[in-house]
Amino acid sequence: MAATSWEVWDLSGQKLKYLPQDLLAPVTLYTSVDLQRNKLKRVTGISKNTNITELNLSRNKIIEFSQEICNLKNLQTLYMNHNNVRSIPEGIFPHLRNLKFLKLSTNRLARLPSDINQCTSLTYLDLSKNCLQNIEPLVGLPKLRELLVEKNQLTELPSQLFQKGSCELTKFKAMCNPLRCPPEEVCAGGVMDIQSYFLQMKENPNAHTTWTVKAMFLGSSMAGKSTLCHSLREGKPVAVAMKDRTEGIDITRLYTHEIRFLLWDFAGQEEYYLTHHIFITPRALVILTVNLASYSTVDPESFKDQIWFWLNNIQLRVPNAVVMLVGTHCDQCRDLEEVMEKKKDIDEKINIMLVNRKMVLKYQKKNLEENTDPFLYMDQVDEIDSLLEYSLKVLDLLTLDCTKTQDIVRFRSHILKCIQSESAFLCSETILPQSYEEVEQAIQKLVTLEQIPQHGIILLEELCDLIMNHVTQSKEHLHSILQFLLRYLHRIGVIIWYEDIDVLRDHVFIQPSFLISMFKTIVRHDLVQQLERISRDLLMQEGALMKQRFIWVEDLRCRGTLHNAALRILVRRELEKLVIDDDDLVREVVGNKKEEGIILTLLQHFEVCLPTLVRSPMNPQAPDFIPGENHWESVRESKRDPDGACLFPIYLKDDLIVCQKWGENKQDDLRVHVYVLPEVPHGFFHR
Ligand SMILES: Nc1nc2c(ncn2[C@@H]2O[C@H](COP(=O)(O)OP(=O)(O)OP(=O)(O)O)[C@@H](O)[C@H]2O)c(=O)[nH]1
After folding, report:
1. Could you report the predicted ipTM of this complex, rounded to two decimals?
2. What is the pLDDT of residues 616-627, one digit of tens each?
3. Residues linked to residue 563 through DSSP beta bridges, in sequence order
4. Where does the sequence pass through the membrane (predicted)?
5. Chain segment 9-22, per-residue pLDDT in tens
6. Atom 7 (ligand 1) nearest CA
7. For the structural domain made of 209-352+391-429, what CATH number should be given?
8. What phi and psi values does residue 433 have, to the nearest 5 degrees?
């Protein structure tokens, strides 16, 4: 084992179980020792080498954080991630006065030593993927700039950590913790959002505790999702007519047992799947609905379409989701025996599916680890490891006849029971400063008093002025905190505010359902028919001819492209149906030949469609591209044409026609080889 240079000694991936003797010699010159990817359980003897400034012990089997490390007085960088460290003794960190970088992610730490804040040079600390319940000991680290505590068991954060003046933090990540104070949706905004939250808590200690549950109704078309959703809200059976089928997503609310339910009803037709992924979020109760009358125990496709497909998709978005299975249409089954037989079949097949998935993942992991160069696949192995850590929790199938009141009552109490038992995961108990509640209520009041237009699109400035009349805050104060409050309301799904999209930063969407209904005009199962139905008058408004309408239909059917002019007509028609007579707003939403409207911007932002580009002219002076050479200028950004067309991959359905129009695959087509995990989300390659 020879050192690669007198400064760096690379001992990575050597299957070492003990530290090599050369390293333990009292005088060595090595300042950087790389021992990652070995089988070390202990690092006994390391303190003999006090020259070490950088030590990489990641991906070993270390259980104890060795007391000896305190003798490494020159240590500046320490990697100890991906081990099994359970605790860190007191009395180590006060000696590590030069330690700047410490990575302890993916271990089993349940608590931190109380003297960690005496590690005064520390600027970077990664404690993600541990079991920490408290990070109070970190208060007082004077130079800490980056702190990562994702995927722990934290419920509260210490306010002193974020105190303005003493806090140097620029990056803080705490996603996937059961946080209530501040709630995760506040933390997601970053250090400034958390600071504003704690400041408001201090200024007004009358904090509110609220419970919110987001329930998402998923399942195939005609399974009974809308029926369940409406009936749950009303507390009695509500019949849903065919014409009222869900298009896109419907959002409603229900207040019961001091819990606020946000009910998201997703459409079941395939055309909408492509937009669903935007809205499927963690920490939600997924209600997967199955039509038991049409379910067949003998046809494998039945399980695949009605259950497997959905569970697979949910798993990809939220690998540890809690899924409540509901079987509807029991009254249309032959008898109770048939219902029970189907229930048994579904429960068994799901069980097999979940077990199989774990097996496939383990097999994949083994394959990667046995590869000649496992180093190349380290990230994939990590990814598989984190997938293996989680498992979807699928509750036993509840069988219902949605036309019966007692079954709807049973459904409601089943949900409440499930929330009680899974509360840590499903129900976000949040502690909020009074201002958050006040602003949310003020917005609701403005809607009720019809001071906000029905479509709910409002300029940020205008909204601020209107809210002013309903809250106790001064105008200056409200101005200073409003962005944090709106960001929070956006994250919990009460409003939509895309502050990251330049052209939309000044607009707030108070009614998310309006925006979704705009999406629905374009992403829908019957878009071809919608185009065919465009009248001559509407065409004339857009300066188009009948002939163009035929081209639009043909292009959509064969090439999956929708002309922007057609899109403008459809969106404008929908706005007219909603009786929106604000010309400026219509122009902004619809756009024109020179400027794309809000809807097109959003559809592109979420990658539902891809714009056709105006190619920049060729540049004869452009230098040749030589791989490995840095002095190569990329082509200038191609421009979008607001009067062009967009490709909607979801409408590329008929392979035969697509091949005829776009051409067969050719040898010189670009080929990309990628390693993909065993699961690929539906529509991934379309997108
Ligand atoms: N007899 C009977 N009819 C039901 C039951 N549940 C739902 N239905 C009916 O089934 C039809 C479809 O129900 P919906 O709630 O619209 O189904 P969906 O899953 O929302 O369908 P999409 O909107 O297409 O995704 C409606 O006519 C309902 O009245 C049930 O348990 N028994």
Report:
1. 0.97
2. 566 666 666 665
3. 645
4. none
5. 888 888 889 888 77
6. 224
7. 3.40.50.300
8. -65, 155
